[in-house]
Design a protein that fits this description.
The chain has a single domain (31-261), classed as Neuraminidase, CATH 2.120.10.30. Helices cover 2% and strands 56% of the residues. The protein is built from one helix and 22 strands. It has one helix at 24-27, and strands at residues 6-12, 15-20, 36-44, 50-56, 60-67, 72-79, 85-90, 98-104, 108-114, 122-128, 134-140, 146-149, 154-157, 163-167, 173-178, 184-191, 194-202, 205-212, 218-224, 237-241, 244-248, 254-261. The strands form six sheets. A four-stranded antiparallel β-sheet has the order 3-22-21-20, with no helix packed on it. The longest helix is centred in the first third of the chain and has 4 residues, at 24-27. The chain is globular. The two termini are 33 Å apart.
């Protein structure tokens, strides 16, 4: 039974996933993720500004957001079960307040914090997962909008990820790799020996790409559409664990979308 005023967007394990009812013409425009099923939509209950990066574990959801007017960048920690905000820390570093895409390691959260303009400057901040205190900062002479931790080095994309910087853990730039496509990557992760990058292809569509590393050979792509708030699903935060894909495209009030990718 579907409650009045709600429409089912997808079925997962026989359970309807519901969104507020849309006008017929708007409902026709709602799209999800290619070759995936929407499993859950969870509101995040807490103040978020312009959402950027996303990571999560069994207990927490971490989100970065940017207060453009206040020139502040934040890391927010939510309870994964309840969606309630638990902690928030200011990551602003002088003129650098664009807290971008994030990545995690066993004990740390890695965040790119940059000036809010192309061809500027950034620091990659390593933050303790337990205390949310900054452990170190690595300076880079370009805007960095996202970062992925490989286990031994860092990969960071500049403005719209036209280039990827490969750094060691002292901040030394080992090489710079051109983005081979047109996708404007907003959040990147490293998993299963591959760089997985999500971003924007047009005002109404996005995509997620899988590259072998370090060859940067494209081995898989999926396209994404828009939410019922007319936001491209891959506009901002992305996290992935096997076939479980998590997207956070909307500024506050934000919703965490959990998709299950079909095996390919």
């Amino acid at each position: 039974m579907v409650a009045k005023g709600l429409v089912p967007l997808a079925l997962f394990c026989g359970v309807a996933v519901l969104f507020p009812a849309l006008a017929a013409q708007d409902a026709a425009r709602v799209q999800g993720v290619e070759n995936a099923v929407l499993a859950e939509t969870k509101p995040l209950n807490g103040t978020l500004f312009h959402v950027q990066g996303l990571e999560l574990d069994a207990a927490h959801v971490w989100v970065t957001s940017v207060d453009k007017d206040g020139h502040k960048g934040y890391l927010h920690e939510f309870n994964r079960r309840t969606g309630k905000l638990e902690r928030q820390v200011d990551l602003t570093d002088g003129p650098r307040f664009h807290a971008g895409g994030i990545s995690t390691s066993a004990e740390s959260i890695w965040v790119a914090v940059a000036e809010y303009r192309a061809h500027s400057s950034a620091v990659i901040e390593e933050i303790d997962r337990r205390t949310l205190t900054i452990k170190r900062k690595l300076a880079v002479p370009d805007h960095l909008g996202c970062v992925a931790f490989t286990g031994s080095e860092l990969i960071a994309g500049n403005w719209d990820s036209r280039q990827f910087y490969v750094l060691d853990l002292t901040g030394h730039v080992k090489r710079v790799v051109d983005n081979p496509g047109t996708n404007q990557y907003q959040d990147i992760k490293f998993a299963g020996g591959m760089l997985i990058a999500s971003g924007i292809l047009s005002p109404t569509s996005g995509g997620i790409d899988w590259y072998t590393w370090p060859s940067m050979k494209l081995v898989r792509s999926v396209k994404t559409g828009m939410t019922d708030r007319q936001r491209v699903f891959t506009h901002e935060g992305m996290a992935i664990f096997g076939n479980d894909l998590y997207l956070l495209p909307e500024d506050g009030p934000s919703r965490l979308f959990h998709f299950v990718l079909k095996s390919h």
